[in-house]
Amino acid sequence: MSAITCSHVEKSYGATTVIRDLNLSIEEHEFVVFLGPSGCGKSTLLRMLAGLEDISGGEVSIGGKVVNDLDPGDRGIAMVFQNYALYPHMTIFDNIAFGLKRQKVPMAEIQQRVEAVSKTLGLDPYLGRKPSALSGGQQQRVAIARAMIKTPKVFLFDEPLSNLDAKLRNHMRIEIARLHQSLKTTTVYVTHDQLEAMTLADRIVLLRDGRIEQIGSPAEIYERP
Ligand code: ADP
Ligand code: ADP
């Protein structure tokens, strides 16, 4: 069974259509990259997969269920945003633990899970600090930790590396690839960076003006004779 299905998906803002009759099926454990120029509709489509956006037409299903019919807590989705979207007044521990606290997970279990995730991402020395005391790369790791701790089935990334310098971008790209392998999630990743797409993707979905222009493995898209 496919993990995510888009069937005749449309999105309009007023009179402007930004996603047009889009059909796509993503397999379990696949790493799919939405690639295309700014404004082609990548983020809008990703937000629709997350159920963060009303759909103007068609249907998005996750695990065989229509995403907008599911309770946000039951969707099994975690999303990492370009600007990290951390809570500035909370410590790193509380940022990572936020979702579990809302689900009323017992404190001892929260403690244990935050420590495990922090260790994986090298964040254990910073748990008592506020986000503003961390570098951009560290803040992005906190955003990933906060998503990871929910043990999502589907991991969504919206240009997660755009605000990092080149060296850190390389490093985090490798880390994201490793996490995808070890967590065995289905991952959808938005970028306008061809290198990121080619090195991360099982399949690239090339978007243009709200339509799929091309879809295939990096080799199929970039090494055609
Ligand atoms: P990308 O992620 O590929 O840069 P977006 O999905 O952010 O593209 O945007 C696609 C198009 O939809 C753009 O033309 C953008 O201006 C428009 N758009 C996105 N969000 C809104 C909104 N909330 N209201 C109106 N137009 C929007
Ligand atoms: P991204 O960096 O992901 O492409 P944008 O900078 O395009 O995001 O958009 C940031 C926010 O502004 C989003 O929530 C998007 O919905 C909203 N937005 C984008 N374009 C428009 C628009 N033309 N009118 C209103 N809101 C917009």
From TrEMBL:
GO terms for molecular function: ATP binding. Keywords: ATP-binding, Nucleotide-binding, Transport. Residues 4-225 form the ABC transporter domain. The keyword Nucleotide-binding applies. Belongs to the ABC transporter superfamily. This is ABC transporter ATP-binding protein. The lineage of its organism: Bacteria, Pseudomonadati, Pseudomonadota, Alphaproteobacteria, Hyphomicrobiales. The chain holds residues 1 to 225 of 361 of the full protein.
